[in-house]
Amino acid sequence: MQSIRTARILTVGVLGAVGFSIAAAPTPAVAYDMDCKVILCLAGGFPTGCGDAYGYMIDRITARPPKPPFGYCAMSDGSEYTDHAVRYSRPSPYTQAGYYCPPGKQLFYAQGDDDGGGRGDVEAFCYTHVTTRTVGRDDDVQTTYHGRGAAMPITFELQITIEPGAATEFRSPTYAINHRTGFVAER
Asked: Helix, strand, or coil here: 177?
């Protein structure tokens, strides 16, 4: 509960700083204000009203070469807000971390062999439960996956910590993102 209160206080403080920056700074501060908005929206999982911040962040992390999720966040005194730590990665589609299943479902992940020295085909899907039965004279086991559905490919994972190491530290959940579809979910 204290973390939520701290995050709210921080949000009000940063939004106040952003508001001051808008009123007191020339046009170039708009990009900086968006960087501050990304910090706040990322901490909250990009709730309603954060679509522009999400798009801005995706443009940054998909740029060639990729940039961090956000840049400079200006405080009301012009100093940079730096009391945060961001962890982000690009999970490989050739690993289980490259896929997401919704709560209540499990991930099936298998990678086949590739005779050519490259990576084999990947099979990934979500399911609710498994049943098995013995069939045939050789006691072969047949496995059936129930409640099957497509696994969401993940292109990024992001997590932000506000005031790391402090008693008032706020750590967001880790978010799984597919920037091609706009998908965002907690891991």
From this structure: strand
